[in-house]
């Protein structure tokens, strides 16, 4: 019997994929029809190419979503553990946010002027993360891109450092990976015409000596990182690594940027507050306004002063930062409602133990069947990985990805009314996710593994 690299019979994986693909085709005639019609005007039939990253032969069209449940165009309902890949981490259309959006919609959506909501939101962000000064953008990509500009202006250094396997949105400077010990462009990058490796260094996560060597010349403006890598599978920091990262940044005058866009799942205030990190900048997108396109970046008082000095030195003109719709009135109304009533310590008090139950439940199903996989979790975010050991860096995480197996599992779950993130094997638990939903996911994963391992 030939086994896949994930430790399962290849024949069973292939048989499940065919069977589940056929089942999807038969069960979703309306989505299939809509997909065919959409091809008339949309490239590849979707308004954004990531909508094709699910394991389906054609896109699943959504009709409605509320709380932790989603309904498709064919009328099937799903327990949603993807939640917009963190964008709806606190549930679809939380009532306070929906009411705030409805109320603001008849009073103007954007006017390039502030409202009194900015006072409340600034205070809420400071209370949540401990940083006193903030700016609002439209996406986390914008926040990361603008922060990198500020870091270069403040330090007068040109280079940035990222970790292999990191993801910080569609920011050019971060599209660098490692191959055979050297920096390369991220595979699949389209339309890139200049060498990103000229101004971006890359080392492995958790590799303190490599980090020290990369920073020693004091030519790096900032290190931008998630406190735990989440977009190449989950890579947790080894004991002492984040302390060493903060110490080396301080020693070399390198600014530290913590991207909490995914690790906001850790707890109230994200990984930063939970683990007492002290970044110069913090960025956050996706869930901060309840799913409405909004992101923020915050900084220390010292950094704010250095930003003012850099701006004065640059003189009048366009900074290269900001878009017309950044910090509009609708964003602030939604963000205020979300931070006051949804994204609260009470929400995390529900999410964290339930996600722990989910993670340990899946882990138990894996162990029962002696399958060489493991489960990692960061607060409300959990992920089962098709490898026996937790990866220490991006290279090891990449080696643990087994596309054919993940395709089969994702399809199996989807056909039984369970959605997990399409990119890896990630689950999210929201404040409105129920114990019954978690139990059903755990049980169904066990049934899936029974069929795969037979």
UniProtKB/TrEMBL annotation:
Keyword Transferase: yes
One Pfam family from the record: Aminotran_3
Cofactors, names only: pyridoxal 5'-phosphate
InterPro entries to which the protein is assigned, alphabetical: Aminotrans_3, PyrdxlP-dep_Trfase, PyrdxlP-dep_Trfase_major, PyrdxlP-dep_Trfase_small
Xref: SUPFAM superfamilies: PLP-dependent transferases
Region (Disordered): 1-22
GO molecular function, one term: transaminase activity
UniProt keyword terms in alphabetical order: Aminotransferase, Pyridoxal phosphate, Transferase
NCBIfam families according to UniProt: PRK07046.1
Family that this chain belongs to: Belongs to the class-III pyridoxal-phosphate-dependent aminotransferase family.
Name of protein: Aspartate aminotransferase family protein
């Amino acid at each position: 019997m030939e086994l896949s690299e994930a430790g399962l019979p290849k024949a069973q994986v292939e048989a499940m994929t065919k069977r589940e693909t056929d089942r999807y085709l038969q069960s979703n005639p309306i989505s299939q029809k809509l997909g065919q019609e959409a091809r008339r005007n949309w490239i590849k039939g979707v308004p954004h190419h990531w909508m094709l990253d699910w394991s389906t032969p054609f896109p699943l069209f959504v009709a409605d979503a509320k709380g932790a449940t989603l309904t498709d165009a064919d009328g099937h309902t799903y327990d949603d553990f993807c939640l917009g890949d963190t964008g709806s981490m606190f549930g679809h259309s939380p009532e306070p946010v929906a009411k705030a959006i409805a109320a603001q919609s008849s009073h103007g959506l954007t006017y390039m002027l502030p409202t009194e909501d900015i006072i409340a939101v600034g205070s809420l962000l400071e209370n949540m993360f401990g940083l006193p000064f903030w700016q609002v953008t439209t996406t986390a990509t914008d926040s990361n891109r603008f922060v990198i500009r500020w870091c270069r202006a403040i330090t007068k250094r040109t280079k940035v450092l990222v970790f292999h396997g990191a993801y910080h949105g569609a920011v050019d400077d971060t599209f660098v990976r490692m191959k055979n010990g050297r920096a390369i462009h991220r595979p699949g990058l389209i339309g890139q015409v200049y060498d990103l490796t000229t101004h971006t260094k890359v080392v492995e996560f958790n590799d303190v000596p490599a980090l020290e060597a990369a920073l020693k010349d004091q030519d790096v403006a900032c290190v931008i990182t998630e406190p735990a890598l989440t977009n190449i599978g989950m890579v947790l920091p080894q004991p002492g690594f984040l302390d060493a990262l903060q110490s080396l940044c301080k020693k070399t005058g390198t600014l530290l940027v913590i991207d909490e866009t995914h690790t906001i799942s850790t707890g109230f205030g994200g990984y930063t507050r939970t683990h007492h990190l002290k970044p110069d900048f913090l960025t956050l997108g996706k869930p901060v306004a309840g799913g409405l396109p909004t992101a923020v970046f915050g900084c220390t008082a010292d950094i704010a002063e250095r930003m003012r000095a850099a701006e004065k030195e640059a003189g009048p003109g366009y900074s290269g930062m900001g878009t017309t719709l950044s910090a509009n009135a609708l964003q602030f109304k939604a963000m205020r409602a979300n931070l006051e009533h949804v994204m609260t310590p009470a929400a995390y008090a529900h999410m964290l133990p339930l996600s722990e139950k989910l993670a340990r439940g899946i882990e138990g199903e894996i162990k029962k069947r002696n399958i060489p996989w493991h489960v990692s979790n960061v607060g409300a975010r959990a992920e089962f990985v098709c490898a026996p050991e937790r990866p220490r860096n991006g290279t090891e995480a990449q080696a643990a990805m087994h596309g054919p197996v993940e395709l089969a599992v994702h399809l199996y779950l989807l056909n039984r009314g369970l959605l997990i993130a399409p990119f890896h094997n990630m689950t999210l638990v929201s404040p409105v996710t129920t114990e019954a939903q978690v139990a059903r996911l755990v049980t169904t994963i066990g049934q899936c593994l029974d069929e795969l391992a037979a």
